[in-house]
Amino acid sequence: MDVNDTVLRLKEKIQEIEGVPVSKLVVQASGAELQDHRYLRDCELTENAEIDVNIKPSPTGSGTGSAGGGTTTMGNKRLKLMVLTKCGTKKIPVEMNASDNVGELRKELQKLHQRLHFHLPQEGYFFIYKQNVMDDDRSFRWHHVAHGDTIEIFNGSVTGGS
């Protein structure tokens, strides 16, 4: 998106990708709902900022208007990924949320390691996606990981950077 786009344009783009009507979308940043007429630059969004996109609950629901459970967060879209072990000897299928931090993949692999007995480097490892090192503290969405993509495991650790 461009900072000169409006929140409405952002919703239209989400509609194009997800097929959810603009009228049902709620876009929030830092807990505050972003109004359709505002420009993204005025919403204090920086480059690579993450926003929350929710779908308004259908009025045909329980009719009680109770809070909680009524909204579906699109950020929790499930991604089916493949993790390629060191030396490319085995591909492990995993399911993660787009909004999960990459560090969650490490926890998931530890669980699967017990069952599937594949090789995980004892001395530590990091993840590579499209020839870029993945930051454990960033989400899969931030890394632009899509459904069906492959992530590779490499021995060692990442240090330095400022």
From TrEMBL:
GO cellular component: cytosol; nucleoplasm
GO molecular function: polyubiquitin modification-dependent protein binding; proteasome binding; ubiquitin binding
Positions of region (Disordered): 53-72
Gene Ontology BP terms: proteasome-mediated ubiquitin-dependent protein catabolic process
InterPro entries to which the protein is assigned, alphabetical: Ubiquitin-like_dom, Ubiquitin-like_domsf
Signal peptide: none
Spans through the membrane: none
SUPFAM superfamilies, sorted: Ubiquitin-like (SSF54236)
Residue ranges with Gly residues bias: 62-72
Annotated ranges, domain Ubiquitin-like: 1-56, 79-160
PANTHER family tied to this protein: UBIQUITIN DOMAIN-CONTAINING PROTEIN 7SL RNA1-RELATED (PTHR10621:SF38), UV EXCISION REPAIR PROTEIN RAD23 (PTHR10621)
Name of this chain's protein: Ubiquitin
Organism name: Corchorus olitorius
Lineage: Eukaryota, Viridiplantae, Streptophyta, Embryophyta, Tracheophyta
